[in-house]
Amino acid sequence: MNTPLSWIKEMVPGLDCTPAEYMDAMTLSGTKAESAQYFDKNLDKIVVGRINKIERHPDADKLVICQVQIDEDGKEIQIVTGAPNAFEGAVVPVVLDGGRVACDHSGNKPGEGFVIKAGKLRGVDSAGMMCSIDELGRDKTYYPEADEEGLYIFNKIEGGSKLKLGSDALIPLGLRDALVEYEVTSNRVDCFGMEGIAREAAATFRKEFKPPVIKETGNNEKAEDYISVEIKDNELCKRYVARVVKNVKIAPSPLWMQRKLSAVGIRPINNIVDITNYVMTELSQPMHAYDIDTIDERKIVVERAANGEKFTTLDGVERELDDTVLLIKDGKKAVGIAGIMGGENSKINEGLNTVLLEAACFDGTNIRLSSKKIGLRTDASGKFEKGLHPETALLAMNRACTLIEEIGAGEVACGVVDVYPVKEGDREVEFDLDACNRLLGTSISLDMAREYFDRLGIKINDDLKSVVVPYFRQDLLRNADLAEELARFFGYDKIPTTLPSGESTAGGETFGMEIEGKARELAEQFGFCEGMTFSFESPKVFDRLLLPLDAKEREAIEIKNPLGEDYSIMRTQIINGMLTSLGTNSARRNKNVRLYEISNIYLAKKLPLEDYPEERKQFCLGMYGEGDFFVLKGVIEEFLYKVGMKKLPSYNADAGKTFLHPGRQALIIYEDAVVGYFGEVHPLVQEAYGIAERTYVANIDLSVICKKANFTVKYEGIAKFPSVVRDISLVMDKSLTAGEIEKIIRSESGAILESLELFDIYEGERIGADKKSMAYSITFRNKEKTLEESEISAVMEKILKGLQTIGAVLRS
């Protein structure tokens, strides 16, 4: 939001401060002023002058010698110029010797401007310079009366030829001003207009606030005789106000209005358009003007568009709509997209006689979504999407009609067509001064609070337990909001420094966070570095991972407004991000890379989405170079042990992961629950990601781990009785796995088994081509007594019998 300081001072009489003082005070009271653009920057010693006499230059065909009067006493200076529009009697801005302008004839704008010095031009003395609007640092776009080439001529503006000679030339140009830029938060809708900022300035400086003048307007004719209004969607249009202006005289708007619009960057067009822009800037209420002769059946209907309906807007672009977009229609056709832009079929032409003025209150969220959907954002939509109050519509309409009559742009018909289905009355908010003081650490009295609130238009009720907030303060909803208002005007810098009060509570991590911490700690101990990848992915990753067409992972959630196709879905697996990172490291020729990531995947309960997706936290490990399948297996088992899962996991080699090597992959199973998988990456997938070496990945579902983990530590005393160790060497088929062997040993050993360790694997001609030998060291211990040989022999016999059932026998 930008406001010229002069405009604010009009609404706050008696406001006498520099722009710097103004910005400091406004920022301290909560309306953050970011910066100020000084219109008179680099402009110095520029006065009003009049060309009294022009002579040809003796040595230059394109130059003339002007005698320019620069004060009321008749003092003249000689200036040589090449301006093609100079004439005797022209009143122009004149830069005196030693003065400065913003840019030179070529449009260059140095940081400190150009200093003008007296000298000679082609041998003739020249004591200064007469200026064009460009040389004063302004754009011809915002000064339509300025000639395309040559000097700025004051004669072209009302009263310009009668300006006092020698007076400050920047004042009638509106350049003795500063444009202040604010950082306005989206909840302060009132501060997106001049009136709202001026009201804040009045409260800050304790000055009277003078609102824009609104007078009773209208002739004997009634607006309802010209137009009727019907709202068919009360949720999207809370209020629609219409008035009629007859005998419209399209002409340039007054100079004061043009200057104000120019100051905020709005190009003056004509009186009617300028008035609607002026009111929008002043009150933050967009308005629209229709040629009433283009409105069929003299009827306005506010309703949703039909799906697939097409409409051509004022910019000449045909747009396809759906039933979420709100339209303004007449008796037969659409004439505008509500809150965004009018239609080409109802635009104002020069020959019009009667204008229909519209001021409405549309649903902000709908305007924002509609604007984005049709790809058209305007000044009006930018205002509406903040969420305007219905009360502003009538105020803006009457202000516009006041201006129309004031500048003689037309004859306003009496009365207003005002459709307001559900009226919004005054809003009361609970108020507790003691709670406010406790929250702020202050001791603001009731009288002080009443004074601060009075400045803001807030009234404390007689019961002292609630307040009535004005319609324009839609951000005040609860006692904490009222406390903020008190703090703003008490002074943030005056709030004493105090220690926090109230009960202290111990902080801590959730169980899930503790598990994530253990995962990070363990991964980094084993040399893994943390990586972070996007949750957005491309549907193409499923093909790179060789996933079948019916794979569950392909049921991904599509993003409505993606950054591009490569970021168009939410990931359903984390492996793609890990392999992409490993591929990047491989391309950079980094050796022995180990990465880990802890992130969510997003699983839809049903597509299309009807509810929030399930977010499952994953712990992913990836490595290439040093290490292999069994190293990764050891890291996984160590992690499970660290989170209190003391039992050994089992593994299922039939993991069914298409992106892993078919013979080197396994599911990780703990107490009959699958907690993850790991394995070597499939060669084709490895090649697709550009990884040059064998690559290994593991993925552990931390949501499952949370259900199995246990950080409770139980003390066990040192064993009192000795252990007994037995070594066995077994011969079996190569297809038999160590897991199957160990499962039988554990099940047959009973409670006296303390540990089991595989210490040798042998394959060779001595035991057969399809055989292998595996040797185990088995430790037994009874916690209650010393084991006897007979007990151990009996257990060993059970173990050997059990092993024989799967084809494992003692090696001879």
UniProtKB/TrEMBL annotation:
EC category: ligase
Binding site for Mg(2+): 475, 481, 484-485
GO molecular function: phenylalanine-tRNA ligase activity
Cofactor note: Binds 2 magnesium ions per tetramer.
PROSITE patterns linked to this entry: B5, FDX_ACB, TRBD
Cofactor(s) the record lists: Mg(2+)
Main location: cytoplasm
Residues covered by the B5 domain: 424-497
InterPro entries for the chain: aa-tRNA-synth_II/BPL/LPL (IPR045864), B3/B4_tRNA-bd (IPR005146), DNA-bd_dom_put_sf (IPR009061), Fdx_antiC-bd (IPR005121), Fdx_antiC-bd_sf (IPR036690), NA-bd_OB-fold (IPR012340), Phe-tRNA-ligase_IIc_bsu (IPR045060), Phe-tRNA-ligase_IIc_bsu_bact (IPR004532)
SMART domains from the UniProt entry: B3_4, B5, FDX-ACB
Catalytically driven reaction(s): tRNA(Phe) + L-phenylalanine + ATP = L-phenylalanyl-tRNA(Phe) + AMP + diphosphate + H(+)
Location within or outside the cell: Cytoplasm
Keywords recorded for this protein, A-Z: Aminoacyl-tRNA synthetase, ATP-binding, Cytoplasm, Ligase, Magnesium, Metal-binding, Nucleotide-binding, Protein biosynthesis, RNA-binding, tRNA-binding
Span of domain FDX-ACB: 719-811
EC number: 6.1.1.20
Ranges for domain TRNA-binding: 40-164
Family statement drawn from the similarity comment of this UniProt entry: Belongs to the phenylalanyl-tRNA synthetase beta subunit family. Type 1 subfamily.
Assembly, per entry: Tetramer of two alpha and two beta subunits.
Protein name stated in the entry: Phenylalanine--tRNA ligase beta subunit
Organism: Catonella massiliensis
Name of encoding gene: pheT
